[in-house]
Structures are given as C-alpha cells and as structure tokens.
Design a protein that fits this description.
The complex is a heterodimer of chains A (391) and B (377). With 391 residues, chain A is α/β, with parallel strands linked by helices. Chain A folds into two domains: 2-166, VC0802-like, CATH 3.30.2130; 178-389, Rossmann fold. Chain A is 38% helix and 23% strand. Chain A has helices at residues 20-34, 60-67, 86-96, 119-133, 188-198, 216-232, 245-254, 260-279, 298-305, 322-331, 335-338, 360-367, 372-381; strands at residues 2-10, 42-46, 49-53, 73-83, 102-110, 137-139, 146-153, 157-161, 165-166, 178-182, 202-209, 236-243, 283-285, 313-314, 384-389. In chain A, strands 1, 2, 3, 4, 5, 6, 7, 8 and 9 form a nine-stranded mixed beta sheet that branches. In chain A, strands 14-13-10-11-12-15 form a six-stranded mixed beta sheet, with helices on both faces. In chain A, β11 (202-209), α6 and β12 (236-243) form a beta-alpha-beta unit. With 377 residues, chain B is α/β, with parallel strands linked by helices. Chain B folds into two domains: 5-13 and 257-373, Aspartate Aminotransferase, domain 1, CATH 3.90.1150; 17-252, Type I PLP-dependent aspartate aminotransferase-like (Major domain) (Aspartate Aminotransferase, domain 2, 3-Layer(aba) Sandwich), CATH 3.40.640. In chain B, the strands form three sheets. A seven-stranded mixed beta sheet of chain B has the order 2-8-7-6-5-3-4, with helices on both faces. In chain B, strands 9-10-12 form a three-stranded antiparallel beta sheet. In chain B, β3 (90-94), α4 (99-110) and β4 (114-118) form a beta-alpha-beta unit. In chain B, α1 (17-23) runs antiparallel to α8 and α3 runs parallel beside α4. The radius of gyration of chain B is 21 Å and the shape is globular. Classes of the chains: A alpha/beta (391), B alpha/beta (377).
Chain lengths: 391, 377
C-alpha cells in the first residue's frame, strides 16, 4: 500500500472551541468545491487535519495550486501514505530523498504509541538507511536543507513528506458572515475583497456603472476581476451591477460640482446598505484608504458613511501604503486587469477641484436640491445580478 | 482515383466540421473588432476570454496565462527573442528542434550570442547525461520540444526542467509542445516550464493561430507592437474565428484524448504487422507517441521519390518536417547519428484518429510502388 496524498493543516480553526465543527465543515466544503474538476479526488477529515487523496500523480500540481487559494489553510504537504511497517517506512523515505543532495535530517512524530520503536529510534534507523542509499546526502540536525517528516498515526497509517507549502492562512470563506464588496475596477477593491475573504467573509460584490458614459469594456473588466476574486471566494462571486447614470446627470445639472463625488458616494453607500438588508448581507467592504485621494480624507469618509445606519463598513486597506496594496494585487493576479484604462463611474463628471474636507450640513443642503430618495430608488431598480465562476 | 489516405497529420490536420460550424458566425454575423467599445464587440472579447480559459484548462493550468499568436512559429520567436538582452550567457537548444526554433537560434548565433545544441540519443530524445553536463550558472535559456515533429520521440520535460533547475535555479525553460498538445494529457504547471507553445492546426483547428502559455511570474516582452491586444504582449487585431475554433477543437480533442490515443496505437500496430507480413525489413527511427513515425521502408529507395510515387496513388506522406521538406537533409535524424543513405530513404507517416486507415490496402500500394521503383516490376 502506497498512496499519494496531500495533508492539509488549518491554523486558527483550532482556537474556536465550540464552533470548531462549523469551521471544519466549511473548510471541508470549500476544499471539495475547489477540487471539483480533479478526477476521483477525495477529501477526508483525519484527526487535526484534512487529507486529499485519490487524485492521479499527474494531477498533483493542480491540487497544490488550487489549495494555495483556499482561506483557512495554514499549510499543506504532498505526502505518501503507507502502512506502518518499518521496511515500508524505510523504502518510502529513501525514495522521497533519492533525487536530493546536500544535508538532511529525519523528524518523526509517533502518535501511535503501540508501534514498538519510539520517534528517536525511527529517525535514527531511517536516517542511517538513507545515508547508505544516497551518497550525496549528509546529516545536519541543526540547519538541514531537507527535512524528512515521518508521521506515524493510528490505524497503521504513516505519512511521509519533505515539503511544506504555506497556505494563505486566515479563516474558511463562509464562517465570518457575508460581505458586500464595493467593486470599482481599480486596484484597491479586489484587494480589499481578498483580505476579507481571507478572514472568512463570504463575498458579494456591488459594481456601479454609468452606462453609456462608462463602456461595456469597463464591465468586462469587472467580470474578469470578479473571476479572480471568485478563486478566493469558494469558487464564485455574485456581482450586482447598478446604474448611477441618472443620478450623476442630476447632480451634474443641479449641484455645486465640487460635491459631485461626495454626493455620488453617499448614494452608492445608500444603495449598498439597502442591498445588504435585502440580501441578508452583514457588512459593506470598501477599498478606501486613509488620505489616498480627495474622497478618502477622514472628513469625506465621515460625511459619506453618515448615510449608512445599521451595517458596519469594513475598510481593510485603510492603513496600507499604495505599494503594499499593489503587491497583494499582483499576488492575487488582479493588478494587470485593474490597470486597464477604462472610465469608471467615479472618473466621469469629476470636478477639477473636489472638496477634500466636506461639511455634512453643506452636503445635505446640496442633496436637498435633488429628489434623493427617488433617484436612489431608480438606481436600485436598475440592479442586475451576475454570478461569476472561478476558472 | 483511389481513396485518399492522408497520413501527414503531423504537418497539419483537417479541421473538424463542428468546429467550423461553431465558429462560423465570427466570420459573418459577429464580425466586429473585439477591441471596439460597443456591446457586440465586448461580447466577442468575452468569447475570446472564454476560449483562453478553455485552453488553459486543457493544459491543466491553474495559475499561468496564455496569449494567442498568429502561429506557433510566432510564439516560439516571441519567447526566444525575449531573451536576447542576456548577453554573455549561454543559450541551449535541442538538436532536433523544429525550424521555428532552430532558425531563431541560428539568428542568435549570427547576432553573436553563445548558442549550443543539446545532442539527441538514438531514440531521438535529448541525451540526458550530456544535457546535465551542459548546464551551469551561465545558461540563461533552454528550449526543448516536448514531442519531435520528425520522429514522435517524447522528451520527459518535467524531468529535464528539474535537472536543469537543480544546477541553475534561474534558467528560463521553454518547450515547444505543438506535437504533444492533445496527443496525451498535459499538466503544463507540473512540467514547470516558463513557456509552452501550442498550435491550432495540429489539433483539428485552423491554420494561422497558435498560443503561448506563460507561467505565473515569467517575464516576456512583446515581439509585435501595435494596438496592445493580448495584454500588450501580442498586438494585432485578434483572429477571432481562429481563436474560437482553436478552443472548440481543443475541447473536442480533450474529451477524446484517450480514445484517440488507442485508435492511433491500433493503426500503428496494424500498419507494422502488415509490413512484416509483406516481408518489409523496415527500420523505425526514434520511439515515442504512436501518432508520428519516421521509418525507412526499403534501403536505397529515396524517400522523396517514394513520396511522389505514393502521391499518385492517393497516399500522402512526407519526407520529413513539411516546413523544411525542400531542404535536402534531415537535422533530427542527423543528430541521432543515422547514416546518410538511411536518412535519404526515410519517410514520415503520421496518423489521425479521425480518419479511417486500412493497413492492408496502404501496405499493398506501398509494396507495389516500391517494387516499381526498384525495377522489379
């Protein structure tokens, strides 16, 4: 018996006492979902871990690359599963390091106390046999280049592995509530979504457009970004597309242009809160970042958030430098899409000198020049729903 | 005229009817430029993105990207000439590469770069020992085909990449996968190559479209500049019909991949058995996929003459890579140390699972024509 498997370790789930089952089940489902396209794959819970098995050796890298995108996985190791039996352990161990050179050490973990040798003895025995089988290897217990792990578990099962790959960490998507991501098409909002998905929020996205001032290409860009986000959001992202055209035209016609952006954003957050309530979504997620642009001064954020009454607004990027955000955008593969140069609804009707420190009473006075509620209703009516699947 | 046996599928394949029908609308109704901003154009752009996804899935890629090019030749040129800023470094090429790679390497030589060729073993594969001995920290770039267009020999790319990276972790590795794609399942990210080239017209798609897989993080520069299509990496208005049909063909082949392999293997077996029954003392050069074989049927009967004689009887085969059939020698066979008379007497036969093959009849005609050429009849 010898089978290729992947062992998955989850981090913070352990901390969660009574809810542990819920977290584990959520993670298990997310893993199964992500691997659905791999033939014959099987995901099983084993004590303290998950084990993926059944896939062909051929598909191992697909499994690995998919696991890299699942929140809640702390690390994972491609391993071989063998029967707990000394000769089997030795030959599988030699096999694992047969192509390697340099220094190594053997680390054994024996959970099955009925096995006659203790962990030190197993390590010593296996290490010696590896040395005589592979002349290019030397032992170094302090700072080895390769660590061979032997994990002797109950039921005569032993896992052997050399590689531990870091997962993205965080919590399984779906166990920290639902979040409505305000998705613009820029660099920041996909990153904000990723950060929250990584903390276990199940994402939904709301995109505002000003068709026909914004193009169909801008929409395609949002769809492609959504596809990337979906990879981190348990395989899909529901995107709500809402038109702000009429509202923007009315602001443009009636209000002092320096307030254009502030007024627009107040309407957007109003729509967002209403959508959250209707869909049972727990929070709004925004890519805002303190001081980055005029609409993101603390004064602007205060005046804009003022319209949201009952739901928290999460701003995971609030204290990031732009470069830090860009680094993550590259990591999640959204950067190249985000920098495509299409107008979005915040970049049309932009005044030359937007107000950076708006006062609430002045903004409210401007808003009174419009039939705010009716216009928001009308925007809300334009809402379309698109479900985007991961690749 | 007798029935036509097209046995040159390594040169090109017949397009599938349902692929032509499926993509037809992009020649008439949906003719729009995918870069334009109105809805019908953007919808075409969506279809292109779906095609990209389909092909990436067929390659087993989770993280990497793919750009469409005007041919596999262009994809190969794009990769190779992206590397030219790295002077003082060594560039390694398989000795049996396709002309679209070899002619690039010769151009690099003319420009003064250090180009070296990796010898082949007797089976037509890269000689692993010699390959490993060639790798050091000065090697910047390696290009090795996955499957030989001449002999069908299969290189273990995954292993070669691993061996190369062990001695030089920063080396850039390209593989020309034109003859491998859809012959057997490929997991391009397991191969761990930086770049992988494929072509539509070898898998039942149209001519004029190829694609280049780019591993996540791999650096590449455009070869053709212009309107910034394909993320700026390959300008020029997209060949929409070509791209969509490429994806349709790949999808179809991907579903049939095992079935096709079995059929082709059967054809090859029947062909060789029939040759034996008829007393042929044939010699096969190289070993690999059953789809393509380079074979000397009768020493002294020139391949070129035989090809033309068979053509008159409705059997289409080739003397070597169709792209270089006009040149007198065969580089791949030379690199395998096969003697010149034997090379001149060799032909390439390549099967397709989508065509009927009657080994008895084909071998009968072969025998007939060879006897004529030998003056026995």
């Amino acid at each position: 018996m010898m089978e290729k498997v992947v062992l998955i370790r989850y981090g913070e789930i352990f901390l969660k006492g009574k809810n542990r089952n819920f977290f584990e089940n959520t993670l298990e489902n997310n893993i199964k979902n992500a691997l659905i396209s791999v033939d014959n794959v099987n995901v099983a819970k084993i004590p303290g871990r998950f084990m993926v098995s059944g896939f062909g050796e051929f598909d191992e890298d697909i499994v690995i690359n998919k696991l890299k995108k699942i929140a809640g996985i702390y690390s994972f190791s491609p391993a071989v599963l063998i029967e707990t039996q000394m000769e089997e352990i030795i030959s599988a161990s030699i096999d694992q390091l047969s192509d390697e050179q340099g220094t190594f050490k053997v680390v054994t973990n024996r959970a099955d106390k009925s096995f006659p040798l203790n962990s030190m003895e197993i390590s010593r025995l296996v290490g010696g046999r590896i040395l005589s089988a592979n002349r290019n290897l030397k032992v170094d217990v302090i700072n080895p280049q390769h660590i061979l792990n032997i994990d002797v578990r109950e039921n005569k099962r032993t896992y052997i592995f050399t590689k531990t790959i870091k997962g993205i960490g965080g919590m399984p998507v779906g166990c920290s509530g639902k979040g409505l991501l305000l998705l613009s098409g820029g660099i920041d909002s996909p990153v904000a979504g990723f950060m929250m998905a990584k903390r276990g929020a199940k994402l939904y996205a709301l995109h505002f457009h000003s068709f026909p001032y914004t193009s169909e290409l801008a929409r395609l860009k949002v769809e492609e970004l959504s596809q990337k986000i979906a990879e981190y959001n348990a395989g899909e992202l529901t995107v709500f597309m809402c038109s702000m055209t009429k509202y923007q035209e009315m602001i443009n016609r009636n209000c002092n242009p320096i307030y254009n952006i502030t007024l627009l954003r107040r309407a957007m957050f109003t729509v967002a809160e209403r959508l959250c309530k209707e869909k049972g979504i727990d929070m709004i997620i925004s890519g805002e970042n303190l001081g980055q642009v005029a609409s993101q001064t603390i004064e602007s954020m205060t005046v804009v958030s003022n319209v949201v009454k009952d739901i928290p607004i999460m701003r995971p990027l609030i204290a990031f430098d732009k470069q830090e955000t860009i680094d993550i955008a590259r990591q999640i593969d959204t950067y190249d899409i985000s920098i495509r140069p299409y107008e979005d609804c915040c970049t049309i009707f932009v005044p030359d000198n937007p107000v950076t420190r708006p006062k609430l009473f002045k903004v409210e006075a401007e808003e009174k020049k419009l039939d705010f509620d009716k216009l928001v209703d009308e925007s809300y009516e334009t809402m379309e729903t698109v479900v985007i699947k991961a690749r | 005229m007798e029935k036509i046996y097209y046995l040159d599928n390594a040169a090109t394949t017949k397009m599938f009817d349902d692929v032509i029908n499926g993509a037809q609308k992009f020649l008439d109704k949906d003719f729009y430029n995918p870069s334009a901003v109105y809805l019908p154009s953007v919808n075409i752009k969506r279809e292109i993105e779906d095609a990209r996804k389909t092909i990436l899935n067929c390659l087993g890629a989770v993280e990497g990207n793919l750009i469409f090019t005007g041919s596999a030749t262009e994809a190969n040129n794009t990769v190779i000439f992206s590397q030219v800023n790295r002077s003082g470094k060594r560039f390694l090429f398989g000795a049996g590469e396709h002309p679209s790679v070899i002619e690039c390497s010769k151009e690099l030589e003319r420009r003064g770069y250090r180009v070296e060729y990796i010898p082949l073993d007797k089976d037509g594969k890269i000689d692993e020992e010699k390959f490993v001995a060639m790798i050091d920290e000065n090697v910047a770039f390696i290009s090795i085909q996955h499957v030989s267009n001449e002999t069908g020999a299969v290189n273990d790319i995954q292993r070669l990449v691993k061996l190369a990276r062990k001695k030089n972790p920063t080396v850039v590795f390209h593989s020309d996968g034109v003859q491998a794609f859809m012959k057997f399942p490929i997991r391009v990210e397991s191969l761990d190559v930086d770049f992988y080239t494929i072509s539509a017209h070898k898998i039942g798609g149209p001519k004029g479209v190829g694609a280049l897989f780019i591993k996540k993080g791999a650096k590449i520069k455009p070869y053709i500049f212009g309107g910034g299509q394909e993320n700026g990496l390959r300008s020029g208005t997209e060949n929409v019909f070509g791209i969509i049909s490429f994806a349709l063909a790949a999808k179809k082949m991907n579903m049939d991949i095992q079935r096709n392999y079995d059929i082709v293997e059967k054809y090859r077996f029947e062909f060789l058995s029939e040759l034996e029954k008829n007393g042929f003392n044939y010699v096969i050069h190289g070993a690999g996929v059953p789809h393509t074989m380079n074979v000397m049927l009768k020493k002294g009967v020139r391949g070129e003459t035989l090809v033309h004689a068979l053509e008159a009887r409705g059997i289409y085969i080739s003397t070597g890579s169709a792209c270089s059939a006009t040149k007198n020698f065969n580089r791949t066979l030379e690199a395998m140390n096969i003697d010149k008379d034997e090379i001149l007497s060799s032909v390439r036969i390549s099967f397709s699972a989508y065509q009927d093959f009657d080994a008895k009849e084909v071998v009968k005609i072969l025998k007939d024509e060879i006897e004529k050429l030998e003056g026995k009849r």
